[in-house]
Amino acid sequence: MAQVMDRSKTAIDFNATAKTLAESFSGKAQEHDNNDKFVAENYAELKSAGLICAAVPAELGGQGASVRTLCEVLSIISAACGSTGLALAMHTHQVAIPAWRWHHQEPARPMVEPLLRRIAAEKLVLLSSGGSDWIGGSGKADRVDGGYKITARKVFSSGAPAGDILMTSAIFEENGEKTVLHFGAPMAAPEVTVLDTWHTMGMRGTGSHDVQIDGLFIADDKIPLQRKAGEWHPAFQMIATIAFPLIYAVYLGVAQSARDIAIDIAGMKPISHRAQAIAGRMENALVAARLAHNFMIEAAERNAPSANTVNDVMIGRRLVEENTIRTVELAMELAGGASFYRRTELERRFRDIQAARYHPLQKEVQAEYAGAMALGHPIAEIY
After folding, report:
1. What pTM was computed for the model?
2. In sequence order, what DSSP letters do the residues of 84-146 get, joined into one string?
3. How many alpha carbons lie under 13 Å from residue 337 in its C-beta half-sphere?
4. For position 7, what pLDDT does the model report?
5. What is the set of domains in the chain, with CATH numbers?
6. Best label site of 146, 189, 194, 256, fewest CB within 10 Å?
7. What is the mean pLDDT of residues 346-352?
């Protein structure tokens, strides 16, 4: 197996690049939030800076960034604009997954290399339909000559207005057996439509609209994976291991920025033991989130996706969720009444951080999965 190489030191300075972009994105974030406006102009800057192809191996024309480096970038950007960070994370994990396969699964190289080269050369934006297409799958695939006709409605497709390819799936049913077919749907196809549905409490600029697919033909040779519906597959162990550290880096960045805003506001007030205690609890929660997130990254860095790795990642995911939300709540409390004003930008962080609740595995399912693992019970259908 090839070793993962982080070539960020010889390509671009990711930390400095992310900070420069964050300064630009910060000034526009409130407008996007106020108007449910997709962060379209930020994508142009992300492409120009090389971050759209950051996860592509350097040998294929990308930046060769590791999962850890990508997480740092996503946290910095999300501190300025959670919507840009989350939309970028959804693209980034769809690139990081085939990149991982290129590094670690040599037989998969001919399958994933053409896409990775296209992302680097054409700056393609990949969309994830993960909100629709977790392990149960969704949508319908009807068998036709040479392939399938797809009918589906995919929700939570972050970055939809800027997307080039929707990485998605549909269910083919035959003789009572359900098979999930995975494929990429070209967003420019006439059978694919972005619906204006993303009007939400938080993360308003992500453009996570529904995508409607009506009779799109997918040829047999464009379906790289088929799996049984409704149970864990090794491919999903890999997806969960790589994707969730990247996604939850976003919430760590949102929490960090809320903490910083609250500290600045509290610093202008008289010294108070109560404020010190609130600030201390906020610091505890933020450090707990950082530690849990690092635990997720370390699980990914083992480069050995399995049920155990998924368990570690999902335990970390739950702890990051809990503690980032708690951090922002305490930031609101520390800032006091000032936090209620939009101009302080704390209330936006409070709304954005709520999205941490809704990615798989949500808390009750995660607890069931972890408990089954501890007890030695089957986990194949816990998702």
Report:
1. 0.95
2. HHHHHHHHHHHHHHHHHHHHH-GGGHHHHHHHHHHHHHH---EEE-TTT-STT--SEEEEETT
3. 1
4. 42
5. 14-124 (1.10.540.10), 140-228 (2.40.110.10), 234-375 (1.20.140.10)
6. 146
7. 98
